[in-house]
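[INFO] parsing input record for DUF2391 family protein
[DEBUG] input buffer:
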Amino acid sequence: MGRDDSSREGDVELQEVLSQLDELEGTIETPEQHRELQETKHLIERLPGGEFLDDQIDKYTTRDLGEAFVGSIIFALPLLVEDGVFVIADHFLTVLVAGVPVYLVAHVLFVITLTTGLIYAVDFREVRIVNPIFGLVPRRLVGVLLISFLTSAGLMVLWGRMDIGDPTTAAVFARITVVWAAAALGASLGDILPGESKGTDLTLGNLDELIETNDGTARR
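[DEBUG] output buffer:
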């Protein structure tokens, strides 16, 4: 057996160990256990043959939230000064089927599909789905879509782009989704391009722990 074959087998074994540790992470309860598990994962990643893990992203941390927010702003800002946003938003509401704006629904599905493909299908990084919400929904996808949407809405309110022309509620939502398409693209790239972030993995199980930690830090 050649050296390359041995190296590949070692990579697979490291990957299996890390996968088992990821599964174990969902069962731990105390901050001390969580910290020890993170230290163990870091030690494994530094082992000879662990360099292949550099392009792999498992954790979803508060730093990822910040990176997605910055990416959203960078990509959304150019659209905020464009009146074409209003034209596109009005177009989304022109065709109704049973009272449902078909183009608007299709656009929202397009944004979700584009974001999903960019995060998980395009070969920028190997992004793994770990600890999905309710066992089904990827945390990173939800975070990127939610942050980019809220950023788009907030910037449009801040810059006074919501009230122009006395729009209906549907028109306001349509305007946000136009900017959201660009913001979601920026949030996806801002999240995954820097690689895996350091820090505590955000899960439904450790939210209370993170809040308590932040409160304790703030009091000090």
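[INFO] The radius of gyration is 21 Å.
[INFO] shutting down worker
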